[in-house]
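Changelog-linked ticket: beta-D-galactopyranuronic acid example.
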Amino acid sequence: MFENITKTLAGAAAVAVIGVTASAAEWRGWNIHVDGYPNTIAMDKFAELLPEKTNGEITLQMFHGGTLGSQPDAVEQVRAGALEIGNFNLGPIGPIVAEANVVSLPFVFKDVPHMFRVLDSEGGAAIAAGMAAKGLTPLAWYDAGARSFYNGDKAINTPADVQGMKVRVMNNDLFTGMIAQLGGNPSPMAFAEVYQALKTGVVDGAENNWPSYESTGHYEVAGYYSLSQHLIIPECICINTDAFNALSADMQAAVSEAAQESATLQRELWAAREAASRKAVEAGGVVVNEVADKAPFQDAMGPVYEAYFETNPSLRPLVELIQATE
Ligand code: GTR
């Protein structure tokens, strides 16, 4: 009798445990940025909203500061389902998803509002579908501003100023092509290695937006920031496609809503941080150089576009759609 009760209790406990593990998903998320960065705060907000909106069925533990690996590695981990969530820049996704690579064509967007108008249109839908098919479903888009060149010893005003310079870029043939067309030597490298590379002269320069230039301390070792604004690349909150597809329609809606709210917050924080970062680096002695004429940089990008169209002939209409979007 006693033995039976014990068995029954043990069985009930086992069912309860199975019940909990089967319904509650514990996700893990990757982010490259430090504390206080807009994306870090917004990803924490996403992690806070998920259990609220899913009745505790989904929780997310965020790993900030790139502690779970470099961005190209993390992209692969989310694709494979080893991680569920990542805040990714679309630059390193381009080599995997041809549609997503359009946003990494230099000067393809006029400005950030233009980029968001495209993302909210059928162009964005095509990019999102391409990503989802490769295992990375974008839930919402983050702002990453415009990227400009910085280096240690001179302002950059024309492509001739880039001649012979070794410039760090993110992993993507479009970026190596871009630097090569300006006469420089491209050096693809993980984000975490750039500070040391600039400091020791392994590279002469790099390129990024105001907040990353500041948060990484790159401005301390590369004090000329030239506003070329050659790349405007969005970022995503991305989820492993299988993990997303396994959710009920209600849960998918809840997760998407949490991501949208996170993105709204990120974009507000981003606008404030861009201004604050510029002010901070200027106070730190950075020489900011307004590039008076960007046309020579744009004109030099012809071969980069041609190479892209040669590899991806079917994506010409997507690029034309972006260029035709007001
Ligand atoms: C930042 C971006 C990161 C990473 C980094 C880089 O602006 O937010 O995701 O792509 O640039 O240059 O590697």
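Closing comment: Example verified and attached. Residues 32, 71, 89, 91, 144, 170, 191, 208-209, 212, 235 surround beta-D-galactopyranuronic acid (CB under 6 Å). The first strand starts at residue 25 and ends at 30.
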